């Protein structure tokens, strides 16, 4: 598995705001926001349900990761997907940093990945409340 997720009922915009607020509590900011629905509509004329990719970053941990492995930026930021399902529910999926960062075979990166995963799991738990 390269992700873990939660499925919620509610307004997608409200849920996205809850995700961003919970990320902030854990020291993350959202560096990028990709509106996949809007992009596919604009570029391909395809209608899709709402789907956003949030690029979350915890600056101290990102700095620590870059110090440990300069090319690790290829695996950052931690992406969070907020998407509306066919039944109207909203899935929030988190990249599992342990699964992704195990590509970097350095113990200090593995330890940091576990810390990041625990923080993201707390974000997931917070939005489920």
Automatic annotation (TrEMBL):
Residues 34-97 form the DUF302 domain. InterPro entries: DUF302, TT1751-like_sf, UCP021774. Signal peptide: none annotated. PANTHER family: SLR5037 PROTEIN (PTHR38342:SF1). This is DUF302 domain-containing protein.
């Amino acid at each position: 598995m390269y992700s873990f997720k939660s499925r919620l009922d509610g307004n997608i915009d409200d849920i996205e705001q809850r995700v961003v607020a919970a990320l902030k509590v854990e020291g993350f900011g959202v560096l990028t926001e990709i509106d996949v629905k809007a992009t596919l509509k604009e570029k391909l004329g395809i209608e899709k349900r709402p789907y956003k990719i949030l690029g979350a970053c915890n600056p101290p941990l990102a700095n620590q990761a870059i110090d440990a492995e300069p090319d690790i930026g290829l695996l950052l930021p931690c992406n969070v997907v907020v998407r509306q399902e066919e039944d109207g529910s909203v899935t929030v999926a988190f990249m599992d940093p342990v699964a992704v960062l195990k590509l970097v075979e350095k113990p200090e990166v593995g330890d940091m990945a576990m810390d990041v995963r625990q923080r993201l799991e707390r974000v997931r738990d917070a939005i489920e409340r």
